[in-house]
Amino acid sequence: MIKYLGSKRLLVPLIVDVIRSLGEERTVVDLFSGTSRVGHALKGKGHRILANDLGAYAAVLARCYVQADREDIIDDVRRLLPEMAAVPGQPGYITETFCEQARFFQPKNGERIDAMRDWIDQRSLDPEIEAVLLVSLMEAADRVDSTTGVQMAYLKSWAPRAHNDLELRLPDVISRAAAGKALVLQMEAQEAASVLSGDIGYLDPPYNQHSYLGNYHVWETLVRWDHPEAYGVAQKRLDTRHRKSDFNSKRKIGDALRTVVLKLDVDDLVVSFSDEGYISREQMIEILSVRGEVIVLEKDYKRYVGAQIGIYNPGGVKVGKVSRLRNKELLFIVPGASRTVAAVRRRLRAVESRHGADAMYAS
C-alpha cells in the first residue's frame, strides 16, 4: 500500500485484535478509512466492512481493498493489467505538473502515468475493476516518487527509487468476507454517521491541522483526473485551499467528533487517536462517555519518517529538530450496553499482553 502519514501499518494487528475481542465476523463501520489497511485486515478476518472517506483517492483504495472481492474481479484484472502496462508513455498533465513544474517523478515515469491513466479513462469499466487498476497505478507511482511520504514537497535531490522504472503489480484483493459484501461511501464523516449502521464503529479521524487532501493531492488528482489548476512549489490542487475538514481545526474538531459519536448507530465503539492530537486523552473520554464507560489502551510507536529526518525550509536546508521521535497511539474502547465492561476488560488484558500495549485505563 502507499506510504501514508497516519497509516496504522504497525498498529493494525493490535487494532484488529481489539475489534475482534468485541465479537468475530460482525459488521464494522470504518468512518475514516484512509488507506484501508484496517478495513482490509478486518475483511480478511471475516468482518463485513462499511467504509467511508471523503477523499476520492481514499474511496478508490477502499473500493479496491475492501469492497472488491477477488473472485469477482481477478480474471478481468489479470487480463487488463498487462494491456495497461504495455501502453507507450505520452506526456500530459502529470508530466507537465509533477515532473516539470514540480519534481515528484522522473519524466519517463510521468509520461507512463499519463498514458495509463488516459487508458483507464477511455474505458467504461466496472467501478470495482477500475478501482483495482487505479490502485495498481497509484502504488506503482508511489514506489518511484521522490518524497518522504507526503506530497507537501519533494526532495531536493532525487530519491534513489525515483530512477526506477514504473512497474504495475496486482493489488492484494481478497475474497468476500464471511459476514457479507462490503460497501464504500464517499461522504463527510458527520453525514456518513447518519446513514451507516453496524455492530462495531471504528473511528480514526485526522488529529491535527495536517490535511490528508493537501498531503496526498497528487493521488487525489490521479484518481479524479480533472486536470485542476495548481499552485505553489508542490503544485497542489487549488481546491485544497477551501476543501477543509472540521477535523483539521482545533476549534471545530471537538464538536465534529461529538456529532459523529452521537449519530453513529453501532453497539460498540473503538477510536484510534494520537497523543499529539488536538483532543487530549481526558477530552476524548469526556466525549465518548455519553455512550458508556471508556477503556483506554496505550501503545508506543515511532513517528512518521518525516519526523525522523527533521525540519527543512522550502530551499531544502535543515532548520530545526522535531520535538520527539515517538508517539503514543491511544485506543479508546466503549463497550455496548449488551456486554459487561468487566468481561471486555478481561479479553483486552489478553490483547494487551500479546501486543505489548503499555497500559490500560478505565474512565
Keywords:
single chain, 363 residues, alpha/beta, Rossmann fold, 8-stranded mixed β-sheet, two-stranded antiparallel ribbon, 14 helices, 12 strands, 15% strand
What does this structure look like?
Helices cover 39% and strands 15% of the residues. It has 14 helices and 12 strands. Strand 9 and strand 10 (318-320) form a beta hairpin. Helix 1 (12-20) packs across helix 2 (37-44), helix 3 (56-67) crosses helix 10 (217-224) and helix 8 (189-195) packs parallel to helix 11 (253-263). The longest helix has 16 residues, at 70-85.
Poorly predicted runs of 5 or more residues: none
First-residue to last-residue Cα separation: 36 Å
SSE string, helix = H, strand = E? HEHEHHHHHEHEHHEEHEHEHEEEHE
Strand tally:
12
Overall 3D form: globular
CATH class assignment of the domain at 1-69 and 174-206 and 254-363? Alpha Beta
Radius of gyration over C-alpha positions, nearest whole angstrom: 21 Å
Mind summarizing the main beta sheet? 8 strands, mixed
Can you give the mean pLDDT?
91
Which homologous superfamily in CATH is the superfamily of the domain at 1-69 and 174-206 and 254-363? Vaccinia Virus protein VP39
Query: Which fold does the CATH topology of the domain at 1-69 and 174-206 and 254-363 refer to?
Result: Rossmann fold
Question: Helix share of residues?
Answer: 25-40%
**What proportion strand?**
5-15%
Number of helices: 14
Strand order of the largest sheet: 3-2-1-4-7-11-8-12
